[in-house]
Structure prediction request, 187 residues.
Amino acid sequence: MMLPNQIKEKAQLVSLVIFDVDGVLTDGTLVYGPKGEEVKHFNVKDGVGIKLLQTYGIAVAVISAKESLPLKKRIEDLGIQYSYLKCKDKLEALSELTQKLNLEFEQVAFCGDDVIDLKVMREIGLSIAPNDAYEMVKIYADVVTNVGGGKGVAREVADIILSSRMDLEQAYIKAMLPEFEEKQVNK
Prediction:
């Protein structure tokens, strides 16, 4: 684990935050409805965090091995411009996205919870794991959040990134404006 000053230094470089989904933006539970449809539970606090990152010019992406209608709807609702679903190679997706955005790996924060995420976490600038991530993942993470997957992880990540640049109270002023709740416009 890194010292707070080291985390702050790495967080100041971040221009792109990437989230895994199951176990990060959700608690990892798979729920199926009576017709076999997948149901996912997302935390509203994460939505605020993701929108805040976007408001302050930090790109947000989702890279997930799975794909579902609830996930697509959540991505659309939050105006997340970059998503790689049914992704077999997250490192390849990361490479493609950083080239597209003309970023270096050190400008990327990635939040993942299981061993499939380690390839990416070892390469990027700031690696983050929820506190209920698989133990091996937490060992390799620069930061382990105080909350578990689906319980506000993205919000905590946003706070880490934003607080490295400004006072959080100041950052949250934009979240109090009526237009904040409008759908984000992809830039």
About this structure: The mean pLDDT is 93. The helical segments are 4-12, 44-55, 69-78, 90-101, 118-121, 135-140, 153-163, 168-172. The CA atoms of residues 95 and 105 lie 8 Å apart. The chain has one domain: 4-178.
